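Q: Hi! New to this. If I give you a protein sequence and the SMILES for flavin-adenine dinucleotide, can you show me the bound structure?
A: Yes, paste them in.
Q: Okay, here:
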Amino acid sequence: MQLLSVSTNPANSPPTALDALLDIDHPTKMAVAKWADEQLTPTDLPTRDEQCAFWAEGWQLAADNGVLGLMVDPEFGGQGADVVTGLLWFEGLGYGCPDAGLNFALACQAWTMQPIVERFGTDEQKARYLPSLISGEKFGAFTITEPDSGSDSFAMSTTCARNDDGAYILNGTKAFVTMAPEADVFVVFATNNPALGSWGVTTFLVDANTPGLTVSANRPKMGLRTTPFADVTFDDCIVPETQRVGPDGAGASIFTSAMEAERAFVLAFQIGAMERQLDDAVGFARNRQQFDKPIGDFQAVSHRLADMKLRHESSRLLLYKAAGLAIEGKPSMEAAALAKIQASEASIASSVDAILTHGARGYVTEFGVERNLRDVAGGVIYGGTSDIQRNIVARMLGL
Ligand SMILES: Cc1cc2nc3c(=O)[nH]c(=O)nc-3n(C[C@H](O)[C@H](O)[C@H](O)COP(=O)(O)OP(=O)(O)OC[C@H]3O[C@@H](n4cnc5c(N)ncnc54)[C@H](O)[C@@H]3O)c2cc1C
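A: Thanks. Here is the predicted structure of the protein with flavin-adenine dinucleotide bound:
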């Protein structure tokens, strides 16, 4: 595996969250950004965005350079890097690689799907899935949302009844699943009794070729159009007991623990993209002349850019605060909820400001500025909507 020339050897003192948040140009982030800028910048992005086409070569290049295996234990072929290094890499990726759909797909697998296998899977499951997931040979997806249970995730109706052989029979439909059209294996949450709510939920690893599992056609969406996206249906899909992850009924705690801080970590690539967006907007404001001076000389424009800077830095601070708490084993749910709200909503506000700064060039598709707004809009929905994150914060406030 050809790795980026970035030290991830824990013996070399991995960066702390404080190192990362104080150094906006952290060398790890900058090295990945440079690499992504040089190697992960597809020339056909506008066409693929229009056609909702996934960049398979980009995915393989990222896997070959260690992006998917970065945080996975060396026993399974990974590099065993810490969370802060992982966030710095994804920030760099978001800065250098303009294909946000590719970055989002990589982030979902690296921060959500693989950690469930690694943290909660059996030795056999880890050995079977992790090496081929991190090498890029296989794709993984994570499915909890259903047509009738979104924010209220544990009100799911996908069932997992047991047959006489001890195997599980899955029935139901999961909706809006990132990477479903490409996935070889799904993390699936199902219930053995919908009346039990969160107590009835169990987690499984289900291979895409299991009889009874079907994936819908790709569902085109507003942004992140290069990330394949579909529904998954289970129709008397028989899953052996060996594919269960964790004990019966542990699904809700697996989900909650896996999402505690990761719901914010997934957005690290988007924070990198915000910085690139700011740099591009500053460059444009310096060069674009109106009324015989650069538009950046007008206070209305320069203050807009200052607001973009403020949003970017405050998103980073909250992200690395959540990371620091998670690394120290302290509760990080509130910090992660705040980081997720800030990063996702700030990205939308800054994308509007970038469009305004570029004038018509910001609105016309060929310049790529408007694509950012479409790409970041999903951030206030996936991983729990902004409303749900505010509910978490309010609960932590004792409300
Ligand atoms: C780009 C993208 C990728 C995704 N990838 C995946 C994936 O890989 N796997 C997966 O399982 N799912 C995925 N999802 C689905 C996502 O997790 C859900 O869309 C999300 O949880 C919201 O559910 P919903 O769409 O059903 O909206 P609903 O839950 O129906 O919410 C509709 C509105 O009501 C509000 N609302 C609902 N309940 C409350 C409440 N209690 N308090 C305040 N407001 C509330 C919401 O905030 C929202 O504004 C993805 C979604 C997107 C957009």
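A: Residues 5-10 have pLDDT under 50 and may be disordered. Let me know if you'd like me to explain how to read the tokens.
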